[in-house]
Amino acid sequence: MSGIETRRVRLTVNGTAYEREVAPRMHLGDFLREELRLTGTHLGCEHGVCGACTVIVDGVPARSCLMLAVQADGAEIRTVEGLGREGALHPVQEAFWNRHGLQCGFCTPGMLTTLAAVLEENPEIDEPGIREAISGNICRCTGYESIVDAALDAAAAARRST
Ligand code: FES
Ligand code: FES
After folding, report:
1. How high is the pLDDT of residue 4?
2. What does the pLDDT read at residue 97?
3. Burial (CB count within 10 angstroms: exposed 0-12, middle 13-18, buried 19+), residue 19
4. Closest ligand 1 atom number to CA of residue 46
C-alpha cells in the first residue's frame, strides 16, 4: 500500500489473533472479507439497513458495514464461520437447518449472528422479543416465519442446556 496512509489493527476473530495494516476508511465488513477471506459475512446495502453484514463484536451484534476496521482494534469478533465447529453446528444453525430457516441464504449469516448473540444473552426470549431482535435483518425470501420458528427452537434448546 505504498503512498496510502495505513493504520495497524490488532483484533481477534473466531479465536484467532490477527494483525494487519489497513486503510483508515476500510470498514470491518470489507476487512473480514478481503483481508481475512472470511466471506461468510455478506454485504448488502452497506449503509446499515439490511443487517446481512452483522457480526458479533465483544458479545454484541454489530453491523460490520458501519464500523471501521480501525474501530475494531482490540476487539473480539465472531463471524458466522466461528459459530459452529467442524461436525457440530451452533444450536441456531441446527435449528435453521431443521426448520428450513433460509432460502437463498443471503440474509442468513446476519440472522445467525444476531440470534446467536441474542440467545446467548437471553435464552428466555419470547417470540415478540425474537421478532424485535431480528427487526433490523431483512429477509426477502422466507416471510420470517421459519426463521422465528427456528429461533424459538434454538431458545428452547439453550434453556434445556442451562
Ligand atoms: S450491509 Fe451492513 S446493514 Fe446492509
Ligand atoms: S433467505 Fe433469501 S434473503 Fe433471507
Report:
1. 79
2. 96
3. exposed
4. 1
